[in-house]
Amino acid sequence: MIRAFHILKSNPLSLVGMILVLTITLCAVFAPLIAPFPDHNGAVVEFLNANKAPSAQNWMGTDLVGRDIFSRIIYAYQISLVLGVVVLAISTPIGTVVGLIAGYKGGWIETVLMRITDVFLSVPPLVLAIAMMGVLEPTLTNAMLAVTAMWWPWYARLVYNIARSEREEGYVLAAEVIGASSNHITFREILPNCLPAIITKMTLDMGFVIIIASSLSFLGLGVQPPTPDLGSMVAEGARYLPDSWWLSVFPGLAILLAVFGFNLLGDGLREILGVEE
Amino acid sequence: MKPNRLMIGAMLLASTTLASPVLAETVLRIDEVAVGELDPAKASDYADSILMFNVYDTLVLPKQGGPGHDGHLAESWTSDGSTYTFKLRDGVNFQSGNPLNAEDVVFSLERMQGIGQGLSYLFGGVKAEAVDDKTVTFTLESPYAPFVASLVRLPIVDKKLVMENLGDGEGEMKDWGQAFLSGNGAGTGAYTVKSHNPQEETVMAKNSTYFMDIIEAAPDTVRLRYGLEAATVRTLIAQGEHDIASQWLPPEVVTALAKDGAQLLTETGTGAFYFKMNTTKAPLDDVNCRLALSHAFDYNTAVQMIAITDDVSAGSPATGAIPVGMFGANGTEMVQAQSLDKAKEYLAACKYDAADMNIEVSWIAEVPLEERFALLMQANFQQLGIKSEIKKLPWALFAEQVSKPENTPHISQLFVNAVTGDPDTLLYGMYHSSTPGTWQSPEYLNDAQVDEYLDAGRTAFDDAGREEAYKKLNARLMEIAPTIYGFDRQSVFAASNRVKVPALSDPSKAFGLDGMGFSFRLMEMVE
Amino acid sequence: MTVAISRPPSPDNKPFGNFMSSILRLLWQRLVISVVVLIGVSMLIFVIARIIPGDPARIALGPNATAEQISNLRADLHLDEPIITQYGFFVADLFRGDLGISLYTNRPVTLDIAQFLPATLELVLIAGIFMVMIGLPLGVLSARFQNKWPDHLIRVISLVTVSAPSFVWAVIFMLLFAFYLPLFPIAGRLSDLYEIDRITGFLFIDTLIAGNFAAFGDAVRHIVLPALALALSGIGQAARLTRANMVETYKKPYIEMAQAYGFFPSRIANHYAFKPSLIPSLTIIGLDFAAMFGNAFLVEAVFAWPGLSRYGVAVILRKDLNAIMGTVLIIALAFVVVNIIVDLIIAFLNPRIRYSEKAKP
Q1: Pick from A30, A56, A57: which is nearest to A46 by CA?
Q2: What is the separation of C-alpha B58 from the centre of its chain, rounded to a whole number of angstroms?
Q3: Which of B246, B358, B360, B371 is most worth mutating to test chain A (most A CB atoms within 10 A of its CB)?
Q4: Which of A52, A106, A201, B455 would give a disulfide with A62, using CB separation of 3.0 to 4.6 Å?
């Protein structure tokens, strides 16, 4: 803990990351209290106030039906964070279990599991998600499903590599000698040694999941209106460049800020936990 | 073309005149939504129509600035109600050099019916026969008053050229030349196809052997580009690299262009924007509930949303089911307006409880403007305490879903126009009980009176009779409210000042048929 | 994807033939895996695409089709057969180089792909060049000035660049360098002014074949912004990796010795530290490069780039099964080929792999 504090102090960038992530999370959680126009996350039409440039009343301008963009970005963070957390909460355990089993058991199980993993890793991640969303209905749940489907193999690969090297370590061999069950060895002995790498990757991945999810909705394959979503806000707004630049630039910067925060924090965690890149 | 121009150029150079401005080739650049379908038998949307009206000709053309039709490839015609006899113009050649004969007309009709796509449904039950080289007779199974109007959708194809280029396929006609005609022109039209890529661009050039005179100032080359982004078009026009934008630009972008000095071209009077209610699905199977929604809709805001400048708008307030300018249209005193009090009255009379309703409002993914109307409806329905859900559907999926009433959303947003300019082609497909479940008829309306008036509109042979039939139809449609009649649509095109398009700017030159205003031979390049 | 080293480097008595054979073995292994991967991908997409709601035949024929036309097309497409049989037809056609007809463009999918692929390849290749030519030098610079201000600056910039999806960069670049400062064209691959015969489909080559240097310059101006937007996060990633690996290398005794001998820092950086640091970065750079085939979807959408990705999105929205399959397969193929090439480059650069007998992927 003290070491962590020192590293954070000596590495002001990760501190910035921490603050960014905390701010964004708090904004998202308390969106109804923070957003200047909380009802603008839904179907509100204020035609007379439509498509207005940033002003004292609407800091980031208004969209084409007159909703406050700043308020909508705060609500969009809710969606992004929930999506990120759900995707990682599902894909990390799946990937970890697959990786652990393949890495520790070896043999044909290893071959089968890792070849399947390779198949998933061999398509550009976005293409797989796009192809899946192309055939599914564009909803939040399906977007989560598509991103999860392409995400677990990365954890499988990561944990597999660690587990394979840990397999040969003395403490594992010792546990085998005293007759510990393979479940015990995989989950009680090997898994804890994978945790720092997993936690670091999860932090960094929050950013990447946000990027992938926003890319899906940018292509019209993600969350549907009137639910605010950063990717679709950029996509919709880009049609009105250069005149109504605020429609696309602010949501774009919002993505940048959130992902930047998670990346800074992840970099810091990597140093604190001593994980190699 | 090319050697000629070179030779003239050489001659002028030799005589050292300052002729380069005269020689400069004029290029008109326009854009539309992808895909551009070049095969005239499959033409259905606006891009296809632009191609068809320029590469091919039809027997008749709508009169400019008024009702009725003039001969075009046909010199004259006679009719006794169920047979029509057309006399073809002499000395017309196809772009291939083949002369136009009555056989070509018969072939064009049979080809359209044989392929069965596009607007071929207009010609169901029609038979054609070549009486002699220049005379052709159409026989109709049942009387159809607006038949002559339909002929603007029968482009005449070069039979000889197509038969020489049949592709693989079964039967005598193999593929009807579809493979060939999807990439090549085979018409008499004022413009020839130089290159065609259905997703990127079609390049067309003036046909030097056209049977009519083409004005000197008409563009030498036309580039029709597909699928340009709004922001791209907006900048290209501002930079002088594009001439006429498609009507699908969002109103804000058109407004921005108009502020920069672009001219606004308009095309009016053949269609309307409708919010269609699925009359087979609860709670919209109750007429009171439909009337409640119709009265809750904020027509005024909807029209404001599509305003472009103070005096140009992409639509005008609807006065009923039939757009102003057509048979049976109501006067402006009938302009639709929101009335929440009436809406509440109707809702109280509805057999369903407002609290249990969840109205599915769909919008077509390709038309982002519709998202705003969906939001507007959602907000309006909220005022009645009715919940609703917005659903974005790509066009292809929408067309598939409406084929079954149970899959059809509660509300579908559609811009429908009369493909031949006649009200029959607007209304029959939408409301007759014999044509349910097409993209035009997600209402699944089944009403004996509506059917009766629609049929009367087809068989009444004088204009007064048709006016009366459509007047009654309009009244009935207002009574049973299968649709929220949003607004009468006007297509607005932002354009550079390099081009003059009388057919789209001067009401006395307007055709009253969607896409016909894009006859390049009537445009003038200024420079 | 990393290359495991199973034996310590052998003394220099191994003949060159051994090197070639180990490279060939590596190539062979990668090819076998690639084929497995491509089969897996095709089955995955095939199954997903067949279980979706919506009848592709009806979608293709449009709203006015009759029931008979639909059932005819369903029969033509084998849609009524069991899914295994359908896959069999698909594979059989594939071996004849036939990916079927796109229901969206009414043309053979192979023709569509042949038309759109060069634009995407050109874009991705140029973006890849940007990634390497800008990313690596930035990483070297950053490592050389470790913990000094150029290092901090480069690290922050590269972290910012990896923090936004390419479409955000595309929008920002477009606004800044095409609208406000009209330095570059906003869309497309070539101005209308130039008519170039599309012989190869690669405009850089076609304009040169035509000997039209003005058109070549125009094509270059068109590709700068999209390629940069596509490459930006890769540039940041490459810089970060190169820096991290070089910092590790700087700790090696031979570098410390070189420093002790008083070699110029630039000489140490370029000659001694760079190459060993490059090898571990290359795998990831290769992956990033290949991932651009996916991200091109986003950039092409903003810049109206007439490439495969725009086609891909269009056919996905229309549930055009043949075209979806063709597009995904061709992108997976490109991805796999790039990975093999990267592995081979690493093998050539890395003496330990070059001389190891068992190069296991």
Answers
A1: A57
A2: 16
A3: B371
A4: A52
Across the interface, do A239 and B375 touch by the CB < 8 Å criterion? no
Asked if A220 and B301 come within 8 Å (Cβ–Cβ), the reply is no
Q: Within 13 Å of residue B495, how many CA atoms lie on the same side as its CB?
A: 25
Q: Are C62 and B44 a contacting pair at CB < 8 A?
A: yes
B180 three-class SS: helix
Q: Do the chains contact at A215 and C52, CB–CB below 8 Å?
A: no
B367 at A interface, C-beta within 8 A: no
Per-residue pLDDT of B353-398, as tens digits, reads 999 999 999 998 778 889 899 999 999 999 999 999 888 887 777 8
**CA angle (B429 as vertex; B511, B400 as ends), nearest 5:** 115
Residue pLDDT, tens place only, B420-478: 989 999 999 999 998 887 888 999 999 999 999 999 999 987 889 999 999 999 999 99
For the purposes of burial, counting CB atoms within 10 Å of the CB of C208, is it exposed (0-12), middle (13-18) or buried (19 or more)? middle
Answer yes or no: do C179 and B397 touch at CB < 8 A.
no
CA distance B173 to C269: 74
pLDDT < 50: residue spans in chain C = 1-13, 355-361
Number of helices and strands in chain A (H, E): 12, 0
Q: Which of C163, C177, C328 to mutate to test the interface with A (most CBs of A within 10 A)?
A: C163
Give the ipTM: 0.88
Can you give the pLDDT at residue B83?
Answer: 93
Which residues of C are less than 8 Å from A263 in CB distance? Answer: 159, 162-163
Per-residue pLDDT band for A110 (boundaries 50, 70, 90) equals: confident
Q: Is the pLDDT of residue A92 over 90?
A: yes
Q: How high is the pLDDT of residue B8?
A: 43
Q: Distance between alpha carbon A87 and the CA centroid of its chain, in Å?
A: 7
Euclidean distance between the first and final Cα of chain A, in Å?
Answer: 22
A239 touching chain B per CB within 8 A: yes
- The answer to whether B365 contacts C105, with C-beta atoms less than 8 Å apart, is no
Quote the DSSP letter at residue B366.
T
Give CA–CA dist B307/B372, Å, rounded: 14
Which chain C residues touch B394 with a CB distance below 8 Å? 317-318
Number of H helices, E strands in chain C: 15, 0
Which residues, 6+ apart, have CB-to-CB distance to C259 below 8 Å? C268
Q: Are strands B27-32 and B221-226 parallel, antiparallel or unpaired?
A: parallel
| CA-wise closest residue to C302 among C232, C230, C218 | C230
- The whole-number pLDDT of residue B285 equals 95
Min CA distance, A48 vs chain B (Å)? Answer: 9
Asked if B228's CB is within 8 angstroms of C187's CB, the reply is yes
Provide the token pair at A174.
């010792």
Torsion of CA C291, C295, C297, C300, to 10 degrees: -120
A229 to chain B, any CB pair closer than 8 A? The answer is no
* Residues B328, B329, B331: CA angle, nearest 5 degrees: 130
Nearest-CA distance from B223 to chain C in Å? 9
Report pLDDT digits (tens) over B73-113.
999 999 988 899 999 999 999 999 999 999 999 999 999 99
**Amino acid B433: pLDDT:** 93
Chain A nearest C-alpha distance from B250 (Å): 8
Residue labelled with tokens 């040694």 = A193
**Chain A 14-73, residues with CB within 8 Å of chain C CB atoms:** none
CB of B392 less than 8 A from some CB of A:
yes
Nearest chain C residue to B429, by CA = C64
State pLDDT tens for residues B209-228. 999 999 999 999 999 998 88
Helix (H, G, I), strand (E, B) or coil at B88: strand
Work out whether strand B411-417 and strand B387-393 pair parallel, antiparallel, or are unpaired.
unpaired
CB atoms within 10 A of CB C4: 12
